[in-house]
Amino acid sequence: MNILEQWRYIDLGRPNPFVAQTFYEAVAEAVSNDKSPNTLIMLNPGAPYVCIGYHQNINVEVDVKYCEENNLPIVRRGQGGGATYLDGNQVFYQIIAKNSEVVPKQVDEMFRRLLAVTVKVYQRLGVTSAKYKPLNDVVANGKKISGNGASLHDKASILVGNFIMDMDFDRMARVLKVPNEKFRDKMAKSMQEWVTTLKRELIEVPSPEIIKKVYVEEIQRILGIKLAKSEITQEEWSLFNNKLLPIYTSREWLYMEAPYSTRHPGRAVKIAHDVKVVEVDYKAGKLIRLRAEVKGKEIIDIRITGDFFATPKETIFQLEEDLKGKKLEETQLQSTITRFYAETGVETPGITPEDVVQALMKLKTLL
Amino acid sequence: MVKIDGNDFPENLYYHRDHMWVKIEDGLIRTGYNDWAQKAAGKLLSLKMKRAGSLVEQGKTLGSIESGKWVGSLKVPISGELVQVNEDALKTPSIINKEPYAKGWVAVIKPSKLDSEIKTLIPGTDKLALETWIKDEKAKAKL
Fold first, then answer.
1. Could you confirm whether domain A274-364 is CATH 1.20.1050.10?
2. Taking CB atoms and an 8 Å limit, are A80 and B70 in contact across chains?
3. Chain B CB within 8 Å of residue A204 CB
4. How near does any CA of chain A get to the CA of B46, in Å?
5. What is the pTM assigned to this prediction?
6. What is the ipTM of this complex?
7. pLDDT digits (tens, 9 = 90+) for A99-131
């Protein structure tokens, strides 16, 4: 393949969480101002931390008190997506490019092009089932195996992502804010089911050095670029330490108000690609609480509780079974609920069949 | 309506090169994201804007958008005072995708330098300039 562009490659080693998660913004500023070439950064986080997406509300998403008590820094990144626990068991790649023929500006095309490298690397490492799942996921046997986000920093495009060698699923479930412990249990179980790692997929986990080596080979081959190993410039360090780090460590940045569109009743946690665990309360004559695992619009699993009584009470378990596999579409739900009430003869004082339908439709607003 | 490669550019608007459109309305300007840009971004899930009352400068950040874990910024097309933000778009950002020039407007600005700054925008009546600009953008977007 003809080499199109000359890029810089930086191995940042095992830096602290703020450097791991935000230094690339300084590089992006330098690239945007033509002070640095297009750059690939790779690293392992040197310590564990919690990372939230640019548009998230920290108090909604993260158990801040738990993080403080356990010396877990919380870092807000400049890219989208959700909250996650990160540590030295991941290898990060961070691509920063301006006016690059190999980095499309069209968002879906950018993800497709750049994640082709992640997919190929996983395949070379032995995860032969790895594949790209639009818009921005890499999966292995249908399970998420890489997290990725992107942004535009002035004129430079940024894509950040990771290879997951291993994951502390318990910690991941613990750091997120939940309405109750049953939600946490459901969320933890869902993560185990829908997220995978190199440790789960392979007998032997490759070292970070091998992962980086293979990535460097594949990004050059697939994108048609030439990487030259280099160091961070004095200007970039100065920009980071003097201008950007004060912003990223400020209370104002961390507790930034989230957009209106992210404010929903109830709680929703995205587990992987189109899988979410959601919980909502619906107040009819009595309270209905729904907690569900949803894939796309399809109910995988649901629990129906609240302060109402069902007679006979076991019939609620049947309704939960009946709803599995159903889509959160009003007409289909009305049919399912009507049939349930007719066949079981259940009585639910304070709750009508329409209330149950509307509670489910309220759940849908969280998707 | 000017149509360039399937993207709409109403003739009665002006276009900032950071992809905001501008409509002059009784001494104020209304602005939003153009059709090409909303398609390139994908379905918008989040929109955050500066507050009404803020002073905004051409080329600086007016707000941020998110689609599929990609975050981009909306730039100020004309300097002035931000007098109104579209609450509907804040609640449902995808309205920008569906009606970028109608219900998907994002802000109304009371301009402070309209006469000088409007000259830096591409008029919707200048089809050649629009075509040249979008052709360059498409090349960068690798479409």
1. no
2. yes
3. no
4. 6
5. 0.91
6. 0.88
7. 898 998 888 899 999 999 999 999 999 999 999
